[in-house]
Amino acid sequence: xxxxxxWTKNKDNIAITTLEKVEKVDDKLANKICIWQGDITTLAIDxxxxxxxxxxxxxxxxxxxxxxxxxxNLKRECATLGGCRVGEAKITGGYKLPAKYVIHTVGPxxxxxxxxxxxxxxxxxxxxxxxxxxxxFPCISTGIYGYPQRPAAKVAISTVKKFLLQNEDSIDRVIxxxxxxxxxxxxxxxxxxxxxxx
Length: 198
Ligand code: ADP
Prior knowledge:
The protein is α/β, with parallel strands linked by helices. Helix content is 34%, strand content 19%.
């Protein structure tokens, strides 16, 4: 089966593709990972991840969208955090966002897989440490920071898979929030490769 064949819409009009639809997926991961195309600031879940810059004071792209929707109190809290290094992750409230928390992480500029892996690992660890069960990631570093989309997707998917296998009872669902059709196509193909029978 291809991911596209199982593209469905739930009652909140959120299109999701879940691993439970892929044959012979590892039981432990069934239903825990999905992809969704749209604006991350609309997701009413425990935590959304922000692809921030090291100042944590806002920027363009997904960072700008998150700060615009959350309102000025997000920037106020971010200003107390002392910035964020590449690969590190810090948590704040969600303010006017439907998500309860924002996890800010700073991706590498250009193709640096170790740094990008740290972003995903540290974001998931913070999620676990704070007892949060649902998290959505944007495609960190693949916009303004120029990390090529496909190699970035490989790092994202392999890191999430490894974390979920090693931390079975921590997180219920990881959403890869894909803003661009090109990312949706890449993730559909790679998720089938990483989790399906092909
Ligand atoms: P970076 O500086 O880490 O590259 P960008 O925000 O420039 O961050 O881009 C990261 C990804 O976020 C890109 O795939 C971009 O298309 C996507 N993006 C932009 N706006 C949104 C949004 N509102 N929701 C989800 N993803 C978004």
